[in-house]
Amino acid sequence: MTPPFTVVVCTGCGAAEMAVLEALRAVVRRCRHGILVSAPCLLGSQVCQTRHGQGAVVMLQPCWPDRSPVGPAQWIGPITDSAELAELCDWIASGEWAGALPSAPRAGKR
Length: 110
Fold this sequence. Notes:
By secondary structure, the protein is α+β, with helices and mostly antiparallel strands. The protein has helices at residues 18-29, 82-94; strands at 5-10, 34-39, 56-62, 74-79.
């Protein structure tokens, strides 16, 4: 069973396409204590890597069922293609968040 988590996806600048939202929605629905939140720019316009539709930034926060955080949040992105999106969804569903995603970029690492 996947541990509780909250996933926040940036919808600022039109960065998160409907495909990203739908894929994340599907994985969250399969996880008993998963929550999906869409929010305007998560990083602020000064450092946003996804301005002008260059992918979506996602943040995963492991938490207790009452939504209290457990450990640091993990920033991923920008997610720019379907392969990265599929890998992200598999990683979320695995519940094994201590290790980095094998190929999807971490925010700020591109």
